[in-house]
Amino acid sequence: MSADERKPILLETVAPASDEIIPARPPPIGFEALQGDEILPPLPRAEESEAYNLDQEANAPLYRKSQYFDDGIRKIDYVLAYEDGKETSHEEQKKQQRRKRFEESLRNQDLQLEYSKKDVSFDRKTNFIKIHAPWPVLCQYAEILKMKMPLAENDMEEFDSCWSKCPNPFELDSDVVKPDPNYFTAPFNRERMEQFHIKNRDTFFTDAQRSRIVYEILSRAEFEDFGTERKKFGIKRLQGNAYIAAFPLHEGPYQSDHSIYASGPINDRHLLYEMWARPKMWYKYQPLDIIRKYFGEKIGIYFSWLAFYTNMLIPAAIVGLAAFLYGIFTMMTDVPTTEICEPNKAGDLIMCPLCDEFCDYWQLKSSCNYSRASYLFDNAATVFFAGFMSLWSVFFIEFWKRRQKEIEYDWDVSNFEDEEETIRPEFEATVTRKRINPINKTEEPYVPFWSKLIRYSTAAVVILFMLCLVIGAVIGVIVYRIVIIAVFAKQKVISQRAPLLTTATASLLNLIAILILNWIYKKLACALTNLEQHRTQTEWEDGFTLKMFLFQFVNYYSSIFYIAFLKGRLSGSPNDYKYLNNERLEECHPSGCLIELCIQLGVVMVGKQAFNNFVELLLPKILNWFQSRTIRDAQKHDHNRVPKQWESDYVMTELQPLGLFYEYLEMVLQFGFVTIFVAAFPLAPLFALINNIIEIRLDAYKFVTQLRRPLAARAQDIGVWYGILKSICIIAVISNAFIIAVTSDFIPKLVYKLEKSPRHDLTGYVNFSLSVFDIKDFPNRSRPLIHENITECRYRDYRYPPTSPYKYQYTIMFWHILTARMAFVIVFENCIVLLAWFIAYLIPDIPHGVKIQILRENYLVKEALFRAEATKRAKAKAEETKQD
Predict the structure, then answer these.
(1) Cα–chain-centroid distance for residue 790?
(2) What DSSP state is assigned to residue 592?
(3) Is residue 627 within 8 Å of residue 651, measured between CB atoms?
(4) How far is CA 702 from CA 63, 252, 348, 480, 528, in A?
(5) Which of 160, 232, 674, 780 has the highest count of CB atoms within 10 angstroms of its CB?
(6) Of 718, 747, 776, which one is at a domain's C-terminal end?
(7) What is the 3-state secondary structure (H, E, C) of 394-431?
(8) CB of 298 within 8 A of CB of 721?
(9) Angle value at C-alpha 94, between 89 and 99, nearest 5 degrees
(10) Number of folded domains in the chain?
């Protein structure tokens, strides 16, 4: 049969059918009303019958009819949309030519197309092309894509634990969210079709699988560039040009007038909205299997990881809150803080000015509140909590590895990247060199090593330049801090709060710089990744992710690292201050830099999450409201008109190709705040837990109600993010060790109690940690203009007094403390590393139950192959006997 003979008859919609008229109702308001126009009680699902014939069910709701061609039999698997321009223009002729040849290519692949012209659309300017993949096409591409389909029911016994028999308020209602049947699966093969568990051809392939198969054809369908003989292919090249949209359909409205508990869900979208996206379900488990079935494995794995991460935050948040409460309850009894706050003790000490010339001397007791706040984040519980979080990160990585293996098996993606993933169409289009693949012996494009070396080297140079630019921006913030603290210190009203105000304003400035630079990073990282010419989509996403995360890591964390490890350690002493751009480097407060680090963390972490929540939720709602105005205007003139499903979905916001990347990035950056700097901010896990509980429901609401249904892409795991998380855990151990040893006062206090305190307590510690300076030794540029009757002042350091022969040199105690700091870092890191190795050894990567099921499935696959061969031989012998 020729290609022309295989072409299906094209149907063209001219007007709504008479049975589509529904009783008049008040016009809806807003985009969400459009989604709820057909809020009806559930009817028998279309997928439960061999063919959903509208003639047999004239009263079927309109959204059901909108899922099918006009014949009511062929299901819509994908939709293309385009607008007509001026037919006389050269550009419009070019677009028409591209569409014509592209659609011919689709028909040559046996896809069936139906047109809905602009005359019957709501805006009277958008044309829609509905695409249906018939059964033979689905089977053909399921075999090409090596889709794993049900082979036999899972006959493995499940052992319920005692906990599973107890009532669990977090479980979803099993009467509403019914568990899917559990099957052993195998790669689909048309020759062995009878061995697969096919009850109904209409339901054998899910909507997500159907749309993925159609997209695979769309991404490789050819079209010729207008005026040339050069062939191009792929819907990506045409989208935004010849076509303005390409998307699979949602299954219908997400709301119903009837309770889901009484009548059941009208479709999977309604089920996800009621049991997943509603805020009242915040404490419930997620219906992950349904998420995977509706949105695909890639999105399902993201929500599985997010749920796992959120659950793991619960013990971390409890311990962090306990550490913070310990600081609150012991704050008033802390000896150094009491000495600072009491006038008759260290509070009367005169401190050296915070800036040159215009700053005055100040008494230590004026920083009483600042010292108490610092103690909340710098106490004995900090060390324990830092060690706990370092071990927590190890448990997180090891247990997620196990959970990931379970997901890979349950969702049939174990060998996706090695066996199932296809070459990127962009790679095939741009790479001209060919070679024979040594594995499958087929010719395919490839990039030689020397070309890869040049491309990767170019990308590395550009990345290095951008990192230098980021560091330059951080230095700019540091200069701002140096200048502004002098400005604040000169103001009598706010001089005592100069360090706090400087930190807060610098944090806001840093946040603004981060948000601006993010836009540049995205464009640059995308261009560099395309330059590297990655073979598969997973490789492309991994390369893009590494670049973006490296940018973001430096962007978000560099200023925090400066406060934690550099501030106050390069400023010098009053007799020899260090300067940058003719401005004196800033010092830490006598109570340390930990409170400033905490403020920086809070502003950046909370500010970033608030901005992201705005972008993720409010922006799509605003765009949807604006884009759906044409439908609302049309309904004002004709109240009986109800938008078809493809029209309702068309005006929704599209999930960007890198939309899921930003979801991961937000959470991984948060993971860095929670682990790398947790010693300075013990409440970070609690804030992260609260944010994630909200984040899950916001993301769910966005995916179900505000976005077009995304392509149900497959993925094996969280990709390169796993390696990034492991790297963050290693950095966290080192960072927390140095924060405790260098940034906090834990080690100096410990050394003082052991070496200097007669009662082995902290009485006199404040005086011990401050050195004496004779104001006559001030350099001219640093000497205050007004000094009254003051002869000496104090500053935070361990140096000999002016009366000593070793005037202003480091004391022996400085070297004792430095040695203790380094010893603590070494001991802390080695203990965590040994415990991490022991934990990794104890926890197997693959659960025992999953191993058994994998072996059982492999056995059944082999048995199916043997049966297929036996059947084949029996048929051959029967043919031979018949011929004889």
Answers:
(1) 57
(2) B
(3) yes
(4) 21, 16, 58, 39, 30
(5) 674
(6) 747
(7) HHHHHHHHHHHHHHHHHCCCCCHHHHHCCECHHHHHHC
(8) no
(9) 125
(10) 2
d(CA 324, CA 373) in angstroms, rounded, equals 11
Among residues 791, 810, 789, the alpha carbon closest in space to that of 799 is found at: 810
Per-residue pLDDT of 171-202, as tens digits, reads: 888 788 887 777 888 888 888 888 888 888 88
What is the torsional sign of CA 544, 545, 546, 548?
Answer: positive
In 109-169, which residue ranges form alpha helices assigned H by DSSP? Answer: 135-144
DSSP string, 26-43: PPP-HHHHHHTTT-----
> Tokens in use for 228?
């040339």
| 561 and 644 part of one domain | yes
* Secondary structure of residue 515 in the 3-state scheme: helix
Residues 6 or more apart in contact with residue 604 via CB below 8 angstroms: 507, 510, 511, 514, 556, 559, 560, 673
In a domain, 678, yes or no: yes
Residues 854, 851: Cα–Cα separation, whole Å: 5
pLDDT digit string, tens, across residues 603-660 = 777 777 777 777 777 777 777 777 777 666 666 666 666 788 888 888 888 888 777 8
Q: What is the pLDDT of residue 128?
A: 93
**Burial letters 83-119, b for 16+ CB under 10 A, else e:** eeeeeeeeeeeebbbbbebbbbbbbebbbbbbebeee
Amino acid (one-letter) located at 356: D
pLDDT band per the 50, 70, 90 thresholds, residue 716: confident
Domain that holds residue 207: 3-154+187-260
0.90 exceeded by pTM: no
* Angle, alpha carbons 402-408-414 (nearest 5°): 120
CA distance 541 to 717: 12
